[in-house]
TrEMBL record:
Keyword Membrane on entry: yes
Job of this protein: May act as a GTPase-activating protein for Rab family protein(s). Involved in neuronal projections development, probably through a negative modulation of ARF6 function. Involved in the regulation of synaptic vesicle trafficking.
Cellular compartment(s): Cytoplasmic vesicle membrane; Endomembrane system; Synapse
Biased composition (Polar residues): 463-476
Residues covered by region (Disordered): 454-476
Organism per entry: Electrophorus electricus
A Pfam family it matches: TLD
GO cellular component terms attached to this protein's record: cytoplasmic vesicle membrane; endomembrane system; synapse
Keyword Glycoprotein part of the UniProt annotation: no
Chain ranges of the TLDc domain: 340-559
Topology with respect to the bilayer: Peripheral membrane protein
The protein's name: TBC1 domain family member 24
Amino acid sequence: MSQEDFGVFVDWSRMGDVSRGDATTDKAEYKDLKDLKHQARTGHWACSHARRALVYRELIKALPCRTVTPDAAVYRDGEGQGAGGRSSALVPLPDCVDGAAVPRYCLRAEAVGSVHAVVARLASEFPDVAHCPALPAVAALLLHWSADEAQCFEGTARMLACNDPERHLLDQTYLAYQSSCMTFGDLARKYCPTAHKLMVAAATDVLEVYGDWQRWVLGDLPFAHAARVMDVFLVEGYKVLYRVALALLKFYCKQKVPGLAEQGSAGVRDDIRAFVRGLDSSVTPEKLLEKAFSFRLFSRKEIGLLQHANEKTLRQKGITVRQKRHDIQLAVSSENFSSEVVSVREIREIWAWLPERFALCQPQLLFSTATHGCSISRFYSHCEGHEPTLLLIKTTEGEVCGAFLSTDWEERRRHGNKLSYFGTGECFVFKMKPEMERYEWVVIKTTMSEGQLEDGGLDADANANSQSLAQETTPSSVTDHAHLSPFLAARHFRLNTSNTSMFMAGNVDCIIIGGGDGNALYIDSELNHGRTSRCTTFDNPPLCSESFQIALLEVWGFQDTMST
C-alpha cells in the first residue's frame, strides 16, 4: 500500500511539519497497553501521517463491536465515490447531528463533501443513533488517515458499534448527550471550581454553555490539537474528552478573567468556542494534554456513576428526546424566588455548588421561622418527604450560613428518638456573609488534595487501589477509594463513622449538621439558638459566630419544574 493511500483527502499545504511517511516501513510498535498509552500521550505518531494511519487502523479494528457491524464493503456496495471527494452540497447532513457542521481541519475543500456522504450513510445504517453532534468531526478526522470514503465509514461505524461499556466512545441519544453535559458540569464544579464560579457569574444558564463541551473538543479544536486528542481518545476512551474539555475551560477562564463580565449564556457560549478555535495561538497540543492529565483522582468509575445518576434524573423528568433549550436550564428564576435570608444573586451562587441533577430544579420554600414559627416539630413536619433540602440561617448579627442536605429528614425516625447520623457525601456546609465559602466532605476533599495518584500516570487505572486514603478512614476497609463517589452513602465505604461520615442528625431536642470533634451546626429545639465549630466531617472553620441567635431560618426544597 503506498503512502498516497493515507493522504488522498488531505490538503498538505495545511499540515505543517507532518511528513507523509511510508506505510511499508513507518510502522508503530508497542509492547503493551502501558506502552501504547505512553506513545499516545507523548505524540509518538504525530510526525508521520502514515504511522498514525496504521495505528488508528489497528486500534479501531481491535474495538469490540456488535455482531453485525457495517464495513467498507457495505459502503462500497451502496455508493459510487470519486477518488478525491465530492461537493458538500450533494448530501445533506442528517438530523441526528443536531446542526453540527463538518470541520474542514486539513482536508481538501472538496473532501468536505465526502464527510457529508459518510455521515449520511452512517445515519442510514444506524437508525438507532438519534443524537450524535460529534459524528461529523469524528468522521472528518478519520478521513485524514483513510484511503477512501469506505475506510472512513468503516472506522466511524466501528466506533458507533463498540459494545464494550468500558470503551464507550460516542453518545448516540439525546438522553446520553444531555446527561453528559450535566456530568461535565458536576466535574467542572469539582475539579475547576474557580472557572465554574466564573461561568455562573457570567452566564445566565450554565447548562447552555456546557451543552457545547463536546463540540469544543470534537469540532472547534485546531487540527494539530484535535489529532493529538484523537490519539489518546482511541486508546483510553471517553473520559479523555472530559479531561480535555476541563482543561479548555481552565485555559479560557485564565485568559478571559480580566474581561469576563455578565454577557448572557449565548455570549459566553460563542466566546468559548471562538477561544478554542484560536487555541493554537496561545496553547500548544502538548500543554493542552499536560493540563488535561493533571486532574487527580479522575476515574472512569466516577464518570459512570455521575452519568447514571444524571440520566436517571432526566428520565424522571421526561427528558429523553430533544427539548427546547429554555426548558432545561440551571439558573434560578428571579421571578419566582423570594427569600428573607439570601438574594437571587446569592441563591444562584449556591445553585452553582449543587449536583447538576438537582440544579435542574427550582427552589421551593418548605419551612420558614417567619411563617411557621420556631418549632422543631413543625420543622420536621414540613421538611419530611423532601430530598434533598437546603438549610439557610441568618443570625441576629447579619451573618448567613447553611447546609445542603442530601437525605430526607424522615430517615432520623429509623432510630426512634436516639440521635443517629445519616446522609451522604454530597452534603456540604457553607457560609455566605461576611464572605462566601463551601466546605465539602473531608474524605473526598482530602483524598483529592493529598492523594499521590495522578491519572497522568500511564497506569493510573491499574494502580488506583494501591493509594492510601485520608487518615480519618480505616485503610484496611476501603479497597476502591480512588473511585469515591460523593453521592453514595457512607455505608458504601465502610468508613469509621465516629468522625468522617457524620453528615446530619436530629431528634426532638436538636438538629445537627456535621460531626466529629464538634458540629458544623447545632440548632436547639426552639430554633432560636445555635452553635458552630470545626467538625471532622467537613473540616470547616466556624461558619459564623461560634454561639449565635437565629433571626431567620429557612428550608428550601427542589421543585421539579418539568412536571408542573
